Amino acid sequence: MDKNAATISEDLDQAHSALTAAGVAGTWVGADDVEALGNRKGAYILALRLAAIARVAVPGRDTISFKPAWYFYAGSARGSGGIRARLKRHFRHRKKIHWHIDRLTVNASLMAGFAVTNGRECDLVGHLLASQRFTIAAKGFGNTDCTVCHSHLLRRM
Ligand SMILES: [Zn+2]
């Protein structure tokens, strides 16, 4: 295994461990196996790897610089199409920018999703933070509709 692959597996494993410790079962899926999720609804973690610095202009805020690293975004998909449809959209590099997270996924070199049926995105943020292995990547990023979390975007400490 090369160094890059080892880093990939370590970051995703840490998130998996944090979720397992919190009693959340699941596994990482990529674009190749996302169909297996069927029509499950709930919440998910999207892991995305930035290979280079991404400078993201968020309307009404200063531009944020994201250094090369893995980032972990918690979102929900309770509508038709469920988590599978949402992850497939995240995995696409070409799309109309709609959410904060779209500005990162279009620059991501690798992505994976972790589906949690009937889960709540804020609980997933809480589980990752509680492991003390993750920290907030950018305050106010991706949680416009949330009054509980400081952010829905985390990274490894
Ligand atoms: Zn939240």
Automatic annotation (TrEMBL):
Annotated CDD domains: GIY-YIG_COG1833
Keywords, alphabetical: Endonuclease, Hydrolase, Nuclease
A Pfam family hit: DUF123
Gene Ontology molecular function terms on file: endonuclease activity
InterPro entries for this protein: DUF123
Protein name: Uri superfamily endonuclease
Taxonomy of the source species: Bacteria, Pseudomonadati, Pseudomonadota, Alphaproteobacteria, Kordiimonadales
